[in-house]
């Protein structure tokens, strides 16, 4: 089941004296985080108004009602969430959190290989890290010839394994 509120970053410190915070981005980029004027605390339970700007590999954010460095320092370690309804993606683009824990199934035989444990960004194409029932890791290139279907609603990734992907293949 898809989560309505997704982790987008964590407040890691303060910036300046007027209540700004530094946010470690857990999304594609600080620019993406800066697209939002409302984020959430406590897994989505409390909305906060925010104005942010990218700064190197982090975002600097001013949260409404936080006006001093002392108030900002109290927020250190807090996780920020976004509401998935505030984002629209092109077809085939998904949140990483929606891919994690998806079952990996052979498109032809229906054999279940394991579950996705991570998504790695290699530059050329993404790679799904998958663990089988014994915890052994395999790496699945996210290319059309291998990943043939992503059923995000049912947490299923159907693949057509390439030769050598799993040890037991010839």
What distance separates the N and C termini?
Answer: 36 Å
Q: Can you write the helix and strand succession as a string? A: EEHEEEHEHEEEEEE
Report the portion of residues in β strands: 35-45%
What's the total count of β strands?
12
Please, how many helices? 3
Low-confidence stretches: none
Describe the protein's architecture and organization.
The protein is mainly β and 170 residues long. Helix content is 8%, strand content 45%. It has 3 helices and 12 strands, in the order E-E-H-E-E-E-H-E-H-E-E-E-E-E-E. The strands form 2 sheets. It has a 6-stranded antiparallel β-sheet with strand order 3-4-5-2-1-6. The two termini are 36 Å apart. The model has no long low-confidence stretch (mean pLDDT 90).
């Amino acid at each position: 089941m898809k989560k309505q509120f997704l982790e987008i970053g964590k407040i890691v410190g303060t910036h300046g004296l007027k209540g700004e915070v530094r946010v470690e981005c857990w999304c594609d980029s600080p620019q993406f985080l800066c697209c939002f004027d409302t984020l959430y605390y406590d897994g989505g339970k409390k909305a906060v108004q925010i104005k942010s700007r990218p700064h190197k590999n982090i975002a600097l954010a001013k949260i409404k009602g936080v006006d001093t460095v002392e108030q900002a320092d109290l927020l250190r370690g807090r996780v920020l969430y976004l509401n998935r309804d505030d984002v629209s993606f092109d077809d085939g683009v998904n949140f990483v959190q929606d891919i994690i824990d998806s079952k990996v199934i052979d498109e032809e035989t229906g054999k279940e290989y394991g579950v996705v444990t991570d998504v790695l960004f290699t530059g050329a194409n993404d790679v799904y890290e998958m663990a089988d029932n014994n915890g052994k890791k395999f790496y699945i290139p996210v290319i059309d010839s291998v990943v043939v279907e992503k059923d995000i609603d049912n947490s299923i990734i159907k693949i057509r394994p390439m030769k050598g992907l799993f040890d037991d293949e010839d």
